[in-house]
């Protein structure tokens, strides 16, 4: 009896995996433009500048424009009615020697991933950011948080997650080969075959290096997911009590503040720096002291001498001979 129950569970899991793969395919067809043109849309596409880009995402009238104005000194129209910001408003701040671009994106609504309220254009810009600030009204944070996460998730954005530890390689023949480096609780050869079958893939090598789910495998097969760190900015804390503030502080990846009164901006900027994972490199002319005023800023995952040279000028690498590095 126990064996039959396990078989039923495995069969159900494989069927669910197949349905999830179908759903992922249909979603991709919905969010992919039919024609080659279009782009982000007028007023949405902003040229990248600086060492990193941060997008402000949230519902209308949660304080995104006020936050941008008080952080970067950039005027972004603020009013008591919704949808004040209709285009992307850029701003720049300098923090710890890094130049960081801030984007105040128009407010999104439920159904944005399906195109409501020009939501696709807004989320498409958010996909280009190195960090996302989800700005929430502190009086109703959890409900709005869940809706916005769902909208971003539906457009292929994975918040505060790392890419699945899965190796996937198509091949011309040989069928489906599955290798599990660690024991799996959800995936097995049957479920992997059914998911790949939805994509008409009959020959591939799949290596599961961690305990993976059907969603993880689908994300790897789709290949268009972006993994972006996120900070939840809970605005308008001047409207709640100290006791409520203590509870809110326990929410992971969260910074409560008041954009209007400029409360707790230091905490936000410090967490922003941690989540961006930037490294400052100081140049030292021969026989002189290091220049601590203008560091070269690189990402933690790309701290090579090649990246350093390209940051200064791409022509340097061609004539580069050696470097002295310490720290």
Structure, described:
Helix 5 (189-198) runs parallel beside helix 6 (214-222). Strand 7, helix 5 (189-198) and strand 8 (204-208) form a beta-alpha-beta unit. The protein has a 6-stranded mixed sheet with strand order 2-3-1-4-10-11, with helices on both faces. A 3-stranded mixed sheet has the order 6-8-7, covered by helices on one side. Strands 5-9 form a two-stranded parallel sheet. It starts with a helix and ends in a 15-residue tail after the last helix. It is built from 9 helices and 13 strands. The protein is globular. The protein is of the alpha/beta class. 28% of the residues are buried. Helix content is 33%, strand content 20%.
Major beta sheet, strand line-up: 2-3-1-4-10-11
> In what range is the share of β-strand residues?
15-25%
Distance between the termini: 63 Å
* Helical/strand content category: alpha/beta
Low-confidence stretches: 1-8, 34-43, 79-83
Give the overall average pLDDT. Answer: 85
Number of helices, counting only DSSP H or I runs of 4 residues or more: 9
Let me know the largest β-sheet: 6 strands, mixed
H-E string: HEHEEHEHEEEHEHEEHEHEEH
Oligomer status: single chain
Attribute tags:
alpha/beta, 9 helices, 33% helix, globular, six-stranded mixed sheet, three-stranded mixed sheet, 327 residues
Detail the topology: elements first, then pairings.
Elements lengths: L1 H30 L20 E6 L6 H9 L16 E7 L2 E7 L14 H8 L4 E7 L3 H14 L2 E3 L6 E5 L5 E5 L8 H10 L5 E5 L5 H9 L3 E3 L1 E6 L6 H7 L5 E3 L8 H12 L1 E4 L14 E4 L5 H8 L15
Helix pairs in contact: 1-5, 1-6, 5-6
């Amino acid at each position: 009896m126990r064996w039959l129950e396990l078989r039923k569970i495995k069969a159900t899991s494989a069927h669910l995996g197949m349905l999830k793969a179908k759903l992922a395919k249909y979603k991709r067809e919905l969010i992919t433009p039919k024609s080659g043109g279009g782009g982000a849309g007028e007023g949405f596409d902003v040229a990248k500048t600086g060492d990193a880009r941060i997008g402000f995402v949230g519902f209308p009238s949660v304080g995104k424009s006020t936050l941008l104005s008080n952080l970067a000194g950039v005027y972004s129209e603020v009013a008591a009615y919704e949808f004040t910001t209709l285009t992307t408003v850029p701003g720049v701040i300098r923090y710890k020697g890094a130049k960081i671009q801030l984007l105040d994106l128009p407010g999104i609504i439920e159904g944005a991933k399906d195109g409501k309220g020009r939501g696709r254009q807004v989320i498409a810009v958010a996909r280009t950011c190195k960090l996302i600030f989800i700005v929430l009204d502190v009086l109703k944070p959890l409900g709005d948080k869940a809706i916005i996460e769902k909208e971003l998730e539906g457009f292929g954005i994975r918040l505060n997650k790392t890419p699945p530890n899965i190796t996937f390689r198509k091949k011309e023949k040989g069928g489906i080969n599955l290798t599990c480096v660690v024991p799996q609780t959800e995936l097995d050869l049957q479920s992997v075959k059914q998911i790949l079958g939805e994509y008409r893939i009959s020959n591939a090598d799949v290596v599961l290096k961690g305990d993976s789910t059907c969603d993880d495998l689908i994300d790897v097969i789709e290949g268009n997911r972006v993994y972006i760190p996120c900070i939840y900015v809970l605005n308008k804390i001047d409207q709640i009590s100290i006791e409520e503030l203590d509870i809110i502080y326990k929410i992971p990846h969260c910074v409560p503040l008041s954009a209007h009164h400029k409360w707790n901006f230091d905490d936000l900027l410090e967490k922003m720096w941690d989540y961006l994972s930037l490294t400052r490199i100081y140049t030292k002319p021969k026989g002189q002291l290091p220049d601590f005023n203008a560091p070269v800023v690189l990402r933690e995952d790309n701290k090579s001498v090649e990246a350093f040279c390209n940051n200064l000028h791409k022509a340097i690498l061609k004539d580069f001979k050696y470097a002295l590095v310490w720290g």
